[in-house]
Amino acid sequence: MNIDEAFGLVLREMREYSKLNQDAFGAAAARTYIGRLERGEHSPTLERIVKIAEVLEIDPLVLILWAFDRSRGKEPGTSGEKGSQTLRRIMAAMLELKEKD
Q: What is the CB neighbour count within 10 angstroms for residue 3?
């Protein structure tokens, strides 16, 4: 499954879990756009993901990471944990370099 299809499935699942219809995204995105996303026919911009997440009342990273994990056949949350560890290592290394300058 590609990332667009995975994002679409996650979006649909979260929308249905939240008991929202496609029209509920009003200002964030038109119903037809949400439908295309849910079918995996379109890739949303980061800005659009943020707006969609606001309607769903979740962190935008949840949508991104869950879709990424699903597209790779991984357990949801796996990439988030690994990504957080990687980010901490990078930030520590950058801070160390900055302190040396």
A: 15
Residue reference for tokens 């079918």: 39
Query: What's the rounded Cα separation, in Å, for the pair 67 and 61?
Result: 10
Domain extent, residue 23, equals 3-100
Residues 6+ apart with CB under 8 A from 4: 40, 41, 42, 43
Q: pLDDT tens digit string along 37-85?
A: 999 999 999 999 999 999 999 999 999 999 999 999 988 888 888 888 8
**DSSP assigned state of 76:** T
What total of structural domains would you count in the chain?
1
| Residue 92's CATH number | 1.10.260.40
At 59 the three-state DSSP class reads: coil
